[in-house]
Design goal:
alpha/beta, Rossmann fold, five-stranded parallel beta sheet, 5 helices, 39% helix
């Protein structure tokens, strides 16, 4: 099953790796390097999943999450992805409204299967 996935990530290497892995698995990947670009991207396409970095240059991931939840006209899973993995972060992200939490660096062997569990079943 091919999905429409938005990756919101400002680190070029992380963005390239996640995009490559998900694209190689047959998914259509859209990217945004800032929170503002992510908000623009959701207005122009229907998405199945959003991967959202918590540390962006303009807005933090929590601000972007709140804005996405307000503006999305449909329910979509939003997964937090972060390199700043501290004790309690997983619980904090889930409490804030993220559907799942993935610490970086990602594991290329398990990343796609972990992300695909959050895709809608049609």
């Amino acid at each position: 099953m091919s999905a429409q996935i938005l990756i919101v990530e400002d680190n070029p290497q992380s963005l390239e790796l996640m995009s490559y892995l998900l694209g190689a698995a047959g998914h259509t990947v859209h990217t945004a390097r800032t929170g503002a670009l992510a908000l623009h991207a959701i207005r122009s396409r229907d998405l199945d999943l959003i991967l959202l970095d918590l540390q962006l240059p303009d807005l933090d991931g929590y601000e972007v999450l709140r804005a996405l939840r307000r503006e999305l006209p449909y329910d979509v899973k939003i997964v937090a992805v972060t390199a700043v993995a501290m004790v309690g972060d997983r619980e904090r992200t889930l409490t804030a409204g993220f559907d799942h939490y993935v610490p970086k660096p990602i594991n290329p062997r398990t990343f796609v299967s972990e992300i695909e569990t959050w895709l809608p079943v049609y």
